[in-house]
Amino acid sequence: MLIHQHSSRLFLRLSRMLAFTCLYYPDLEVRDNARIYLRMLICIPGKKLRNILNLGDLILGISPSSQSSSFYSVQSPRLSQKFKTFRNLSSCIHLERVTPLLVKQLWSLSLSSFGVSNSKPAYLEGVQDSEAPAEENESAESSSTEIIPEMGRISQPQEPLRVMDSKIAEILNTLRNYFSYIPDFRYMPGLRVRINCSLRLESSNFIRMLGIDTTASPLEEIDVLPAIHATVLKFSSSAPYGPIPSYRIPFLLGEGYGNNASQNLSLSIVPVENGTREEDKFRASVAIELEPRVPTPGVVDVHIETNAENGQIIEGQLQGITVGIEDMFLKAIVPPDIAEDAIPRYKLDLFTALWEACGTCSNTGREIFSLKGSKGVAAISGTRSVKLLDIPAASLVQATERHLACFVVGVTGEPLIDIVQGGGIIQNIIWDTTSDASHDSTSVANFDTGPLFLTYNDEDAKGHVSNGRRRNLGCILILIVLPPRFHLLFQMEVCDDSTLVRIRTDHWPSLAYIDDYLEALYLS
Question: DSSP state, 253?
Answer without folding.
Answer: E
